[in-house]
Amino acid sequence: MPIEFQVSLEDKPGSLAWLGSVIGDANVNFDAIEARSGRGVTVVHFVASDTEAAAAALEESGIPYSKREVVVVNILDQPGTLGDVALVMSEAGINIDCVYVTVRGDVVLGVDDVEGATQVASGMAVMIEE
User: Fold this and answer.
1) pLDDT at 100 exceeding the cut of 60
2) pTM > 0.85: yes or no
3) How many structural domains are present in the chain?
4) 57 and 11 assigned to the same domain
5) Are residues 16 and 64 in the same domain?
């Protein structure tokens, strides 16, 4: 399963540049990334091309992080498809707490039940990325 990192940065100019440099200097790519700011903090979620190298780079630079498994799915690029996936997940009792897109156009779903979400997505003929 893909791993999502979550880091909290100070909401100021240069913070995202610093994170990008730390990850880039480790020769790691962002496969997917999203960020939002509020109350002086920027929360960044990302999936890295090399999980172990990204974790080592974050640790070496002193950036605290958490990580978790996420579901990455390839869905049709048609109006309403994401809504359909979200509806079926909700009907299965699965909460989606985070959604963003990879650089390849796949959808990253942060969920409270990775195994269940994987089963639901597979049942919808949605391609799961490992």
Assistant:
1) yes
2) yes
3) 2
4) yes
5) yes
